[in-house]
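Write out this protein's structure.
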Amino acid sequence: MLKHSKSNAAQVTSAEAKVDMTSLLDIVFIMLLFFIVTTSFVKTQTIDVSKATNQCQGGCEQDSQPILVSINEDSQVIFDNRIIDIEAVRANIEGQLVNSPDATLLVRVNDMALHETLIGTLDQAKQAGIQKVSVARW
């Protein structure tokens, strides 16, 4: 009879050791709701870049010449056969867009050039208002 009373005491202690998780779940859901409401979603700005081809894809004019920007193996930007700074790309492209507002930009890049220079050039072209950009290996 003594053993029987001990097992009842062990069952009573294990029943009393349960933890109520309701309040913890409430706090978790409140935190989840807080993070969902306070999160800001930023739409990234992108530029469409197409690979340069020799074929006309409709609406091509014989008189329109692309604006040519080259990046050599030393990551120097060349515009109109002169080396310019990346920050000057925007002003030069804007000057060319005055004469032909629908001109496309052709960026010729050497394989040894830094990607940073290419991205900087494309960023400056977008700020200049260029709509069509093609990138070719040089």
